[in-house]
UniProtKB/TrEMBL annotation:
Belongs to the class-I aminoacyl-tRNA synthetase family. GO terms for molecular function: ATP binding; tryptophan-tRNA ligase activity. Pfam families: tRNA-synt_1b (PF00579). SUPFAM superfamilies: Nucleotidylyl transferase (SSF52374). It is found in: Cytoplasm. One of its GO terms (biological process) is tryptophanyl-tRNA aminoacylation. This is Tryptophan--tRNA ligase. A motif ('KMSKS' region) lies at residues 253-257. A motif ('HIGH' region) lies at residues 81-89. PANTHER family: TRYPTOPHAN--TRNA LIGASE, CYTOPLASMIC, TRYPTOPHANYL-TRNA SYNTHETASE. It is an enzyme of class 6 (ligase).
């Protein structure tokens, strides 16, 4: 087992070896066969599947089987709200949107204003609830189906979830939760109970639940899978993504608390340009002469990785960029400029949709078709 990197729900250290992580976490690789099976249903494959950004799973084969047999399934994902989302936070939401569009299934999005508050000594509950409102706008901007999506905030929806959460909590011991999340005797008791609230939505329907999320959230799902069947529900299935690397280099993940490591959804064009030019870790050579001679290394180049994982969906274009960069024909500055243009176009469109989202908050949280159904339902 490698000790050069570690992945937990709160931090990612070192350069992650994703093949090793699959072994460490006991998940399955998404094989070409599985992708073919998905493509048969969906007609095409999302770029994040084609390029193995979503690379690992549990029971995805069973989800497809349930779908094919007409039993259906549902989607669940979430967000611990913070001051401003960065571009990495959109990875699971963009992919989830695609899944919802292709499979036409219900989606539950948990906004854990409680988790954020209890984990951060310096934040007030008023602040995390304000972040929740703000982050929900960015999430709505991704474009979910208003009839089939319910966005709920823990401190509001707790009334309906609490009976289910207590049943889950009773199945989990302190020693299991402590070992899974590295808690200590000094941890506040809220955070000891919290896993029950992240697990509860996996049981919102008596169908199999599929969770698209970064692989850092996996510990919760391991606990869920230990207890789900004893409560009469399915073990949750997952589809895990890699992390969009921080600007500063291929190690770790982007952090909201290190501004130079991330591009925020609110960064204006000038800020984007400055950050990419100044901080985006380069796989290029130190001088133009050397770069023309030896070429760049796209594997460690953050601008290339962002284009590959997210911003350049055209397979022919990304291949050409890779070849030109590797051969030295394309310089680091040119590569960065491609990313800057793509990012700014994306962010401009996102901000327009975010403005429109202000009109839709009530629909997704309270008044939409699924939202209404959910507010009328106590999860026993
Ligand atoms: P949070 O708010 O830390 O992260 C939200 C989602 O974003 C993913 N993520 C990333 N994905 C790609 N690249 C990155 N650099 C990157 N950084 C973060 C995370 O894996 C996550 O999917 N406890 C959760 C909130 C939650 C939740 C859930 C998440 C509640 N229920 C169900 C997923 C599924 C949290 O703190 O997420």
């Amino acid at each position: 087992m490698s000790s050069n990197f570690s992945v937990t729900p709160w931090e990612v250290k070192g350069k992650v070896d994703y093949d090793k992580l699959i072994v460490q976490f006991g998940t399955q690789k998404i094989t070409p066969e599985l992708k073919e099976r998905i493509k048969k249903i969906t007609g095409d494959l999302h770029v994040m599947l084609r390029r193995d950004v979503f690379f690992s799973h549990r029971d995805l084969d069973l989800v497809l089987k349930d779908y094919e047999e007409g039993k259906g399934f549902f989607l669940y994902t979430g967000r611990a709200p913070s001051l401003g989302m960065h571009i990495g936070h959109l990875v699971p939401f963009i992919f989830t949107r695609w899944l919802q569009e292709k499979f036409k299934v219900n989606l539950y999005i948990e906004i854990t204003d409680d988790e954020k508050f209890m984990r951060n000594p310096e934040l007030t509950l008023e602040q995390t609830r304000q972040f929740a409102y703000d982050n929900i706008l960015d999430i709505i901007a991704v474009g979910f189906d208003p009839d089939r999506t319910f966005i709920f905030q823990d401190t509001e929806y707790i009334r309906n979830m609490y009976p289910l959460a207590t049943k889950i909590a009773k199945k989990l011991t302190f020693s299991e939760v402590r070992a899974t999340f590295g808690l200590e005797n000094s941890s506040n008791i809220g955070i000891i109970f919290y896993p029950a609230l992240q697990i509860a939505p996996t049981m919102f329907e008596k169908k199999r639940c599929l969770i698209p999320a970064g692989i850092d959230q996996d510990p919760y799902w391991r606990l869920q899978r230990d207890i789900a069947e004893s409560l009469g529900y399915y073990k949750a299935a997952q589809i895990h993504s890699k992390f969009l690397p921080p600007l500063t280099g291929p190690e770790g993940k982007m952090s909201s608390s290190i501004p130079e490591s991330a591009i925020y959804l609110t960064d204006d064009p000038k800020t984007v340009e400055r950050k990419i030019m100044k901080y985006a870790f380069s796989g290029g050579q130190p001088t133009i002469e050397l770069h023309r001679k030896y070429g760049g290394n796209p594997e460690i180049d953050v601008s290339f990785q962002w284009l590959y994982m997210f911003f350049e969906e055209d397979d022919n274009k990304i291949k050409k960029i890779e070849e030109d960069y590797r051969s030295g024909k394309m310089l680091t500055g040119e590569l960065k400029q491609i990313l800057i243009d793509k990012l700014n176009k994306f962010l401009e469109e996102h901000r327009a949709k975010r403005e429109e989202a202000k009109e839709l908050v009530n629909t997704f949280k309270y008044e939409g078709k699924l939202a209404k159904e959910m507010w009328n339902k106590i999860h026993e």
